[in-house]
Amino acid sequence: MYPTRILRAHHSPKPNITGFDPRKFARSAGQPRYDPWERAEAWRYTGTFSRWNRFKGAFPGLGIATVAFAVYLGYEQLFLQDDHHDAHGSEHH
């Protein structure tokens, strides 16, 4: 850390020469009574664009692919067993 930064850290902030304090202005403003853009923005979070629907749409086809893969694994396990295994691991036909 530079010595100048250490010295600046101990001093109070410089006064604003305009006299305008943005923090004081924000505190006095409070919450707006009416948001003119509220209706225009409401559609983004309802219906088709709700959080759950946006999440579902992020992975199209994942559900059907998972089910199809599970069915294939079950079919392979039940019907595609290799019946002639050798005890030593070598293949003899």
TrEMBL record:
Its main location: mitochondrion. The keyword tRNA processing does not apply. The chain crosses the membrane at residues 57-75. It is found in: Mitochondrion inner membrane. Residues 11-32 are annotated as: Disordered. Keywords: Electron transport, Membrane, Mitochondrion, Mitochondrion inner membrane, Respiratory chain, Transmembrane, Transmembrane helix, Transport. One of its GO terms (biological process) is electron transport chain. It is a single-pass membrane protein. It comes from the Eukaryota. GO terms for cellular component: mitochondrial inner membrane. The keyword Membrane applies. Accessory subunit of the mitochondrial membrane respiratory chain NADH dehydrogenase (Complex I), that is believed not to be involved in catalysis. Complex I functions in the transfer of electrons from NADH to the respiratory chain. The immediate electron acceptor for the enzyme is believed to be ubiquinone. Belongs to the complex I NDUFB3 subunit family. This is NADH-ubiquinone oxidoreductase B12 subunit.
